[in-house]
Design brief:
By secondary structure, this protein is an alpha+beta fold. The protein has a single domain, classed as Sufe protein. Chain: A (Alpha-Beta Complex). It contains five helices and three strands. Strands 1-2-3 form a three-stranded antiparallel beta sheet. A hairpin with a 2-residue loop joins β2 and β3. It is globular and about 40 Å long.
Length: 117
């Protein structure tokens, strides 16, 4: 995504799954969300589902997207793959937090402010 308003870079060090989430915000509504992911199939599916779920949501609505909501939208995940939905939730919260920090007048771009927990 060109010139994102919020960026997240999250990973699961135990399994190596990684997700980069980019959001574009207009007013208080997320108008675009894209991702780059590497890892197992469920991690990529959870990343994709997160972007689908984010589009059109207000920031407040987006913050209510939990790992459980992502998993249910995928038809459920086995317990050994639930960490993929947790990764998507963490990416959502991190990208929104990045957007909110940048919006408060920081001169640092979202790309520079992304966090890699």
């Amino acid at each position: 995504m060109e010139a994102p308003d919020g960026v997240a870079d999250v990973k699961n060090p135990a399994c190596g799954d990684r997700m980069r989430l980019f959001i574009k915000v207009d007013g208080e509504r997320i108008v675009e969300a894209t991702f780059l992911a590497s890892g197992c199939g469920p991690a990529i599916a959870a990343s994709s589902m997160a972007t689908v779920m984010l589009k059109g949501k207000t920031i407040e609505e987006a913050l209510r997207i939990s790992h459980t909501v992502v998993s249910e939208a995928l038809g459920g995940l086995p317990p050994t793959k639930m960490h993929c939905a947790h990764l998507a939730e963490k990416a959502i919260r991190t990208a929104i937090s990045n957007y909110q920090r940048c919006r408060k007048g920081s001169e640092t771009s979202p790309e520079e402010k992304r966090r890699d927990p």
